[in-house]
Specification:
Blueprint (H helix, E strand, L loop, with lengths): L2 E4 L10 E9 L2 E3 L6 E2 L5 E2 L18 E2 L2 H11 L14 E10 L5 E2 L7 E2 L1 H9 L7 E2 L2 E5 L7 E3 L47 E4 L2 E8 H9 L7 E4 L3
Parallel strand pairs: 3-6, 5-7, 7-11
Antiparallel strand pairs: 1-14, 1-15, 2-7, 3-4, 8-9, 9-12, 10-12, 13-14
Length: about 240
Amino acid sequence: MKFYELEPGDINLQKGTYNATYKWKLPGVSCPTCKTIWGGAGTNYPAVDLSVLPEARKYLKARLEENFDEYERLRDTVRPLLPPDDPLEPAATFGPLVGKARGPFSAFVHQYGDILLVQPTALEVLQGEGLRGLRGCRTEIRFSPKGIPELLDLHIEPRGLLHPDCIPRGTPPPCPKCGRHAFSLPKEPILDAASLPKDLDLFRLRNFATVLIVTERFKDVVERFELDGLTFRELPVR
């Protein structure tokens, strides 16, 4: 089985544009152990609804939480809403995208590397061909002009890892307090074969969440049905 990175969208291949952010988010942190102020990117959970939490309003605004104990409390309050092994980083996001969009749209809109929007008819094609792990979430985006099909936001599970061989030498291990693992995406990423899921045709990497990966099956269906808006780069597996 071959695996492909979904490369950030080429504006010449995509139709339509949007400006939106997720409704809820964890705050960024100032870590007392590694002394870093940070918030991650790509840890997006659009299917997770924080409105069920009594303190949901505390997750509405992007902000820095300098009290690490308070950050941990907010993080641990969200934890039961996710599978137990899903990563929860500072600045993780939840719920629907809120904002504006203007179409018409290509089948996929991959405007930002860590978010993949899809037209409902395209999602139906993928699911009808038996592709696994594809869950479309409604947004709170205001679409224009009126009457165009609204895009769905794909909830993409964090599975699979970059192979240690492609992580730069000398990279410190993750911070034991906040979990930050500071390295840049390698120019030539390698996937860790033992970590790759056998039950998903679309997923994001656990140790570099902005990287979206699809299987050869996914790519073949997209190309066979001429679903536009995506570009693929095959990645080696070791």
